[in-house]
Design brief:
The protein is α/β, with parallel strands linked by helices. The chain is about 50% helix and about 15% strand. The protein folds into four domains: about 210 residues, no CATH class; about 300 residues, Glycerol-3-phosphate (1)-acyltransferase (3-Layer(aba) Sandwich), CATH 3.40.1130; about 90 residues, Winged helix-like DNA-binding domain superfamily/Winged helix DNA-binding domain (Arc Repressor Mutant, subunit A), CATH 1.10.10.10; about 110 residues.
Length: about 800
């Protein structure tokens, strides 16, 4: 190395040290540290020529154990390791930039054409000095947004000074220049092809990381009354004589102002710092699963996040995770009840738009909301909403409400240029923030209205330990593929005349809603509190010797791992002893010391709380639980009889717990679980018939516990069927049947010690009655009364072989 080169490198290193006094970097992107190790011919592509970005990437590649490019660590290639594909605009405050073939790129292309047997890897790099979509007409955007597309060295320096502590380094998977050279006739053509590919890639990266440019909120609001659906609603209101044109327009503007978000990068940065402190104060960490698949899918699709809804923390947590990992912040649908003083404006500036709980009787509001949602999708924003509608108080995934999905579908039918994918997100807490509140509400206490005072009162929770949070990004549902499957030929249909509400839409949307919540459940993570809840609550009096509890925890975790719902189903790492200790630290269980061995138990308050976390993952043991209910009485039963029993009940269990298998897949799943139960010593078989292990064996208690997992569900079914059998047809309406079933269930829970509030939840009986109608076991007459079929009698007889006789007698006495 020459004296000049050594001096230049020394100077660069000093500049790099000074620069990193101002920087705090986070690596984002699709490149993984364990994928691209070793010496290679490697160069780095930037959007613009930037010394600061070169200094940053030279240091950041150390995380991959790569040679540092400032040392010419590109595999010995005696050419510049950096090149750019745009030249900055010469005029201030202009984003437009001119594509350019830099001299370095041309030299690299010439070298690649001269050495066809070797490969140059081009690593696309984007450095964000802060992140945020640019707002039109704001002079101060230079300090608040990412630099690099406007201005030169001075503006980059100012961005570093202001946003340097919030620097994101986006590294993408390498591009093979050797492969690009295969179809190239000259070095010039190869250089142009490489530059074109990189420019397209950088556009996708920018859309994924910071989103599209934001129009000024006032401009967006002022345009909504002119949009087609709103304009028609205004005309209709005037024709009906309800409003004058001017008042209708003013009302539409007021609705738009009530709804629209107002993302502020300053607020986002504030929330980033605040939420970082919140998670450190409340939780031991946030564990992510499958986020790399999301990053890949988000590059070419518009993402609609559809998480389960367990806590008010959900949307804050998801936005925080996405921001931290370099993904575009979504526009979040929030209930209007959260638009309260102080909190509402902060949420709005963090990306929330507000929606009323119901606007069926307000077509003008519905049209404004439809057009606002369409503007989000047509401009390329990601979005987020909860298909369950509200938070789950029981820990179960709730029956989906398809309103937002229907609006998304209508928007897509209007403009399907950019593909949409629904990203199911499972969020699993070890201790939910509102746990005590949920228990009170399930006991009948009226839900408290959100208020600033209520938010302030939650501050007393800070300092408590809420354990870890698991966030799993599930299997995406691609809307185009889903429509092609459900409604072939939909692209050739005309929708404008029906306001994009074709006759087939309701059925398709309902199917989509069930698919989404099923994918959420398939992505479940079983944490220690879930496991302890499953095992301990399945024991009489919610107590077990510690040694027996450890064994059961180990066995059930192994079975869930061996027969998962999907490849994304995951059991937390650790040992049974560690899980018990962790549950004790969160006050989820208690310990009683004893000379013969400690006892682990849950008192009444803890037992009710544990039902929430058990219900998060109850669906994972639904099939073996039903097998246990059938075989616990130790009668030998054939494989076909077990399949008939499971097959008859499966549609109802599937509707309640969102199990993923079709009926034709049940034999395979049944075989898998029968094998697991036999391997663990719960069942014995002669190859065709199965029988419970002798009740004097220790394993019998575990089979009995497995049955207790699903027995409350079957008892609820039996209550409704017994009511219908006893009173016959034309006695109940659907709502009366739900109410009477819930009353009997409440009585049974007291008499038989069912310490689970959702046992008499009327919404579960509503799901059962609805499914009985779909299975044509019930039919609703014109007067609203229900008639029964012979198939219902057969189902009741099957259940009588599984439900405990004493419970059946109690139910009959209540009829």
């Amino acid at each position: 190395m020459s004296w000049f080169s050594k001096s230049r490198l020394t100077l660069m290193r000093w500049l790099q040290r000074l620069l990193y006094l101002l920087l705090k970097t986070r690596q984002i992107g699709t490149l993984q540290a364990d994928q691209q190790q070793g010496e290679r011919l490697r160069v780095y592509a930037f959007m613009y020529a930037s010394l600061a970005e070169q200094l940053v990437i030279d240091r950041e590649v150390e995380a991959f154990e790569w040679s540092r490019p400032l040392d010419h660590g590109n595999g010995g290639l005696e050419l510049s390791p950096f090149f750019h594909v745009y030249r900055r605009s010469g005029r201030l405050f202009r984003k437009q930039a001119k594509p350019v073939l830099s001299k370095s790129l041309q030299q690299l292309a010439q070298w690649q054409m001269s050495h066809p047997q070797q490969n140059i890897e081009v690593v696309p790099v984007r450095i964000y000095w802060g992140r945020g979509p640019q707002k039109e007409g704001s002079f101060l955007r230079i300090w608040l947004q990412n630099s690099g597309t406007i201005g030169g060295r001075l503006f980059t320096l100012m961005a570093i000074l202001i946003n340097g502590r919030n620097t994101f380094v986006h590294l993408s998977q390498p591009v093979s220049m050797q492969r690009l050279a295969e179809g190239s006739n000259s070095a010039s053509q190869l250089a142009r092809k490489t530059a074109l590919l990189l420019r397209k890639h950088f556009r996708l990266v920018n859309a994924t990381v910071i989103g599209p440019d934001l129009s000024h909120r006032r401009t967006l609001i002022s345009q909504l009354p002119n949009r087609p659906l709103v304009h028609q609603a205004i005309e209709q209101a005037c024709q009906d004589g309800q409003l004058t044109p001017q008042r209708a327009r003013q009302r539409a503007l007021r609705y738009a102002d009530e709804i629209a978000s107002n993302i502020s990068y300053t607020t986002v940065r504030f929330l980033d710092v605040l939420l970082g402190w919140v998670w450190n104060s409340l939780y031991d960490g946030v564990k992510l699963h499958n986020i790399d698949a999301l990053k890949t899918a988000a590059r070419d699709n518009e993402v609609v996040y559809v998480p389960c809804h367990r806590s008010h923390i959900d949307y804050l947590l998801l936005s925080y995770v996405l921001y931290q990992h370099g993904l575009q912040l979504p526009q979040i649908a929030a209930g209007i009840n959260l638009n309260i003083p102080v909190v509402g404006p902060i949420l709005r500036r963090g990306g929330a738009f507000f929606i009323r709980r119901s606007f069926r009787d307000n077509p003008l509001y519905g049209a404004v909301f439809d057009e606002y949602l369409h503007s989000i999708f047509s401009r390329g924003y990601s979005a987020e909403y909860f298909v369950e509608g509200g938070r789950s108080r029981t820990g179960r995934t709730l029956q989906p409400k398809a309103g937002m999905l229907a609006m998304t579908l209508r928007s897509y039918l209007r403009d399907s240029r950019k593909p949409i994918l629904f990203m199911p997100v499972y969020i699993g807490y070890e201790k939910v923030f509102e746990g005590s509140t949920y228990q009170k509400e399930l006991r009948g206490q009226k839900k408290r209205k959100e208020s600033l005072l209520g938010i302030v009162s939650t501050l007393k929770s800070f300092g408590r330990d809420f354990g870890k949070v698991h966030v799993t990004f599930g299997e995406p549902v691609y809307l185009t593929s889903f429509l092609n499957q459900q409604q072939p030929g939909w692209r050739e249909q005309e929708f404008e005349s029906c306001h994009y509400r074709p006759d087939w839409a309701p059925a398709v949307v309902d199917c989509l809603a069930r698919r989404v919540v099923t994918e959420i459940n398939r992505s479940a993570v079983v944490n220690p509190i879930n496991l302890v809840g499953l095992t301990l609550l399945a024991s009489p009096r919610e107590a077990m010797p510690e040694a027996a509890l450890k064994q059961r925890l180990q066995d059930w975790a192994a079975m869930i791992t061996a027969a998962p719902l999907s490849p994304l189903t995951h059991v937390s790492d650790g040992t049974p002893a560690e899980w018990i200790k962790h549950a004790e630290s969160l006050a989820a269980i208690s310990r009683q010391t004893n000379p013969l061995g400690d006892l682990i138990y849950a008192d009444d308050r803890q037992a009710v709380a544990l039902t929430y976390y058990r219900n998060n993952v109850l669906h994972l043991l639904a099939i073996p639980g039903m097998i246990g209910c059938l075989l616990i009485h130790r009668q030998a039963i054939s494989r076909q009889q077990i399949l008939d029993f499971i097959g008859a009940l499966y549609p109802f269990v599937q509707a309640e717990l969102f199990l993923p298998w079709q009926v034709e897949e049940l034999p395979r799943q049944l075989e898998l679980w029968l094998q697991q139960l036999c391997d663990k010593g719960y069942l014995q078989t002669d190859g065709e018939n199965f029988q419970a292990i002798d009740d004097r064996e220790a394993s019998y208690e575990d089979l009995d516990a497995m049955a207790r997992v699903m027995m409350p569900t079957l008892e609820r079914y039996y209550i409704t069927l017994a009511l219908l059998q006893h009173h016959g047809s034309d006695h109940f309406s659907a709502s009366a049947l739900e109410q009477q079933s819930a009353l009997i269930a409440q009585r049974v829970s007291l008499l038989h010690g069912v310490n689970s509030p959702e046992f008499f939840d009327s919404s579960l009986f509503r799901t059962l009655v609805s499914q009985l109608q779909k299975q044509q076991m019930l039919a609703e007459q014109e007067q609203g009364m229900l008639t029964t079929s012979s198939a219902l009698e057969q189902l009741a007889n099957r259940l009588s072989h599984a439900v405990d006789g004493s419970v059946q007698n109690t139910i009959r006495r209540c009829l």
